[in-house]
Write a structure and sequence with these properties.
This protein has 346 residues and is an alpha/beta fold. The protein folds into 2 domains: 166 residues, Rossmann fold, CATH 3.40.50; 155 residues, Rossmann fold (3-Layer(aba) Sandwich). The strands form 3 sheets. A 6-stranded parallel beta sheet has the order 9-8-7-10-11-12, sandwiched between helices. Strands 3-4-5-6 form a 4-stranded parallel beta sheet.
Amino acid sequence: MQRICATLTEHGYDVTLVGRKLKSSGEPSFTFKTKRLNCWFNKGKAFYVELNLRLFFYLLVTKFDAACAVDLDTALPVWASTMLKAKVFAFDAHEYFQEVPEVINRKRVKHFWERVAKFIIPKTDFRYTVSSGLASQFRALYGVAFSVVRNLPKYEKHNSKANNSLFILYQGALNKGRGLEALIKAAPYLPISVKIAGEGDLSAELRALANKLNLNDKVEFLGYLKPAELRSLTPTAFLGYNLLENSGLSYYYSLANKFFDYTMAGVPGLVPPFPEYELLNEKYAIGITTDLNENEIISTVKDLVADKERYQRLVDNALEAAKDLNWENEQKVLLDLYSQHLPSVS
C-alpha cells in the first residue's frame, strides 16, 4: 500500500491511507497523508465490527472523489460511503480472502465473506489483484474483469557475482501456511544457516521449535527490520525462502512480494510448484521449484550449494529479470486504471 499510495501521490493525486492504530505503531513518515483509527478491540468479530463502523463514519464525514477497499474486510463501509456520496468505488484484492488459511476451514466465517464478495465486488467501478490466476478466478466467480497489478519492488541495480554469504533468508509474516516449520526442521541438515526476518502469529511457536532442536547457532530470528535494513540484507543471502502450503486458492494463485524482492537482489528463490511461479520460471528461470517437506528442502539446497555454475546462472537470470519485473514498469497499469475513472489531475 505504501508503494501504491506513493505512486498515486507522485502523479498528482491527493491520497490518504486509512488504517488502525496499535500500541506498537510508530510515527508515519510518508509522502502521502495517513489516518489511523483507534479501536477498542484488536481481534475477533468485535474488532471487525468496530473497524467497519469506524471506517464508515470516517468516510461519511470526509471529502473524497474515490475510495479503495483493500480486501473484503474493508469493502462494506467503502461500498456504503461511495454509494451514498455517488463516488468511485475501487477494489484492491491482495488475496483470495475466503481462501486464506485463517478463514478456509471455518465454514460459517467463509460463507459470510463469500456472501459479502458476491454482493460487493460486482458493484465496484474498477478492480485489480496481484496475479493473473486470481484475476481469472475472480472474473469467473463475480462476472467482472480484474486488472493485474503485481507488488513489484522499485528497480535497483546489483552486481552479478557469486554469493559467499551462506544463509537462506525468509522475510515476511511468521504466519500459518508459510512453510516455516519445515524450514526450521530442515536446518540441522543444511550446509547453510537460516535467517528469519519478520514477526507474526507463529513467532513464539517457531522460536520454541528452534530452541527445542538446539538451533540457536543455525537459525537466527531477526524480528522486524526496517525496509532499508531489509534491502541491505537481502542481496547478501544465498537463497530466498518462499515455500507455501497448498492450503487454499489464495496461496495457490499467489505471487508473494518477497519473491520479487529476492529476484531484484539477484537471489534465487525456493518456490512451490504453483501456477504463477511456474509461469515466471518458464519465462525467466529465476527460482527453484521445491515441494514443501524437509527432505526436499535439504536435497535442493545441498545440490545448489554444490553446483556453483547452476547457482550463478540463476543469479544472472534474476538480475536480468529484474529489469522487467520492477515497479517502474508495473505502476503504468495502476496509473492507467485510476486515470480512466477519476477526474484528471495536473
